[in-house]
Amino acid sequence: MTQTVELPLWLFVLIVLFAAVTFASHFLFPSVRWFFRRRLERAVARLNKRLEWPIQPFKLARRHDMIQRLIYDPQVSHAVADHAREHGVPENVAFQMARRYAREIVPSFSAITYFGFAIRAARLLSNSLYRVRLGYIDEDSLKGVDPDATVVFVMNHRSNMDYVLVTYLAAERTTLSYAVGEWARVWPLSRLIRAMGAYFIRRKSRNELYRAVLATYVRLATEARETQAIFPEGGLSLDGALCPPKLGLLKYIVDAHDPKGHDVVFVPVALNYDRVLEDKILTSAGRARERRFKARIGVVAMRTLRQFWLRVTGRYHRFGYAAVSFGHPLSLRAFAAETDRELAAPLARELMRRIGRIVPVLPVPLVSWLLLNHGPMTRTALEARMDDLVRRMPHAHIHMPRHDREYAVKVGLRHLAERGIVSVQDRQIQPVEAERDLLEFYANSIRHLIPGDEVVISAPAKEISASARS
User: Fold this and answer.
1) What's the pTM value of the predicted model, to 2 decimals?
2) Could you tell me if 90 and 84 are in contact, meaning their C-beta atoms sit under 8 angstroms apart?
């Protein structure tokens, strides 16, 4: 027992290394994790005191635990058995598929990432690109929402900036859990988005097992009172107008609602921009009648570098105004009490109606509509036409910069002229025919608010499709 044993130096180093790893994994790492976990829990408790809708334990659960809970849910188990029987595969193979879907969907929320980085980055980016304005907010109704209810922000989808803008403006009230499409599954962006609490969805999946896993996750989040944000239109608008709602995630939320349990409250949110970053991509896709957006990473990087160079050289100008309105909340329990038929479709129509009613009216859409509907005119005539149009829209939420319609015309024309969408010939302002679809894109965003030019939003699409497409 006391004899000396000689070992080669490399073997001694290897033994010490293995011992250190074993000690760390069994004693040191768990203690360190517990220490930081306790500090995080105390920080979240302090944070929840100032949030109107606090961060729920569901969001703070470990990702591994959430995946296990999801794949062993009875609803998923039945779907696994059905998939195995229908496709003639062993149940363990179908179970592994369900596990893969769960790992793909479940986020890994980090309060430190969300409040320490994401909110600050969203604020910086939003204010760097736009003059951000709060169009309208029903403050009393929002404060009157049942604190035990599940809150769901329901938004029109104009741009991928929607995520950033609403996250920034809602930061004082709650944290938002978005459903995001395949565009965000690019490393390292995917890790950041997961850490912000977003979950990934497949936009056009017809796989019943995948749908069951996704529906179960949405049900668990709804039951746990997780604050969510969805886009009922199902994707970005290709022509600028509000799109018919789709019954994807919205139907999952309705199906998850227990009339005897806590309520679900939908908060309508409407966004509008003087310039949508992807407008040319969207109008091109609209002309081609397909949603295959050809925005390559290299193109995005080059445009970003160009904007950075303009800022460095002092020639950078923000892209006009961006505005967000928060409307009157809708209680699912109250709506269900007044509806004696299938809920999802009429609910989708009512939510889109409420969103459309509070869409902010900005200078570029106003000028665009006037030029399209009244033809070429002088600036003086344009100002007079805008005066008349604003008087015809007494209930619209119009953002008039500096409360000056002359300045609003100037702002709208400047942004359109800089991009070559309008031109001036013989003091007549007129649309450039080659860019007419862009002018229509911006005019369509407010067309439904203008008396005599309203657009009726058609019934929801019957197929269940994933929301929050990009």
Assistant:
1) 0.84
2) yes
E strands, 311-416, are 321-326, 330-331
% of the chain surpassing 90 pLDDT? 49
Sorting pLDDT into bands at 50, 70 and 90, what band is 189? low
Q: Are residues 419 and 330 part of one domain?
A: no
Residues 327 and 410 in one domain: no
How far apart are alpha carbons 389 and 376 in whole angstroms?
16
Give the span between the Cα atoms of 179 and 198, in whole angstroms: 6
Give domain status of residue 266, yes or no.
Answer: yes
19: confidence class by pLDDT, cuts 50, 70, 90: confident
Structural domains in the chain (count)? 2
pLDDT over 50 at 470, yes or no: no
Residues 219 and 264 in one domain: yes
Least confident stretch, 33-37, 126-130, 133-137, 426-430: 33-37
* Residue 303: predicted pLDDT: 63
pLDDT tens column, 138-147:
888 998 999 8
C-alpha separations of 109 from 101, 144, 197, 198 in Å: 18, 28, 4, 8
Q: Does residue 18 sit within a domain?
A: no
Tokens describing residue 72: 């062993």
SS3 8: coil
Task: In whole angstroms, give the CA distance from residue 271 to residue 159.
Answer: 9
Q: Identify each DSSP E strand in 52-158 by its residue range.
A: 131-137, 150-155
Q: How far apart are CA 242 and CA 446, in angstroms?
A: 9
b/e sequence 221-249, b meaning 16+ C-beta within 10 Å = bbeebbbbbbbbbbbbbbbbbbbebbbbb
